[in-house]
Amino acid sequence: MIRNFFSFVICIIVVVLFFSLFTIEEGHKGIILRFGKVLRDMDNNPLIYNPGLHIKIPFIETIKILDSRIQTMDNQADRFVTMEKKDLIIDSYIKWRISDLSRYYLATGGGDISQAEVLIKRKFSDRLRSELGRLNVQGIVTDSRNRLMTDVRASLNNGTSGEEALISYSKNIKNFNSEKYDISEQKRYRISDSVNPNSMAALGIEIVDVRIKQINLPTEVSDAIYQRMRAEREAVARRHRSQGREEAEKLRATADYEVTRTLAEAKRQSLIVRGEADAETAKLYATTFNEDPSFYSLIRTLRAYENSFKKNNNDLMVLSTETDFLRFMQSPQILPSINN
Questions:
Q1: Which pTM value belongs to this model?
Q2: Beta-strand (E) ranges in 153-232?
Q3: Among 1, 118, 279, 290, which has the minimal tally of Cβ within 10 Å of its Cβ?
Q4: How far apart (Å, rounded) are the C-alpha atoms in residues 50 and 30?
Q5: pLDDT tens, residue by residue, 141-185
């Protein structure tokens, strides 16, 4: 009987320990809920349990473990309007983490990350839309891009906008660095005694970083710009083609002129050379024929024979056998002697 009693007591102790002890992994933190309410200390700050082994009252208290690491949320590309009333498609991402577990638990309905991201995206979209409405496209794409993201992050964390957010954010960081932050005593830093309900601190969330991944123009605007650029390029191409045709005509006319001039000069030179050669030939013939007239008569007669009795000559000649034209054919003996 006593043995059974001790066994029962041991079982009760094991069950109590099983429901009393809990562990929290690295990168996570936990809060205790007692009858559905967050358990707080004497300073009305929620009790936060860091990674390790802890104990709670079984069946009365429950532990809610939340991921305290930096989370990354990719935002779907959305359309925004600039100060110039121009639309931009902006793709961005946000890095955030839990800054107040109690507020985060209550604001997200039990620590639901998807619900937290819905709230973050809603506030981020409103803040980014407000900041982009004060800038032009050039400022967004170039110099003001880093400043824009700093403004948005500060405004989300502080619930203000523009330079006020930056001033408030830098003051809070300065105060935070000047205080002693003792995790072992679970003292939490508070940005202000009264949290701005429009800030992410009211949700127990801190925005660590905001970045723009890509900036695009809407499809209709991109198509219009492409068509305008294409028209401009086509106009430039037409102008270059027109100038090319003009230059080609000039080069062609110059080449034709040079060809005509060169041919005319060559023809003139050839005529001069031919004339000089004919003159020299005539001079030689005259000199030769003057020295021997009978030889000249013979040459002229032989050329006449050659032209008259060609193979393809179909002309008909009726000549007397006594004609003087055939004297060298009738009596070859009368051929004059050729002086060497």
A1: 0.54
A2: 205-216
A3: 1
A4: 7
A5: 775 567 888 888 888 888 765 445 445 445 544 444 444 434 333
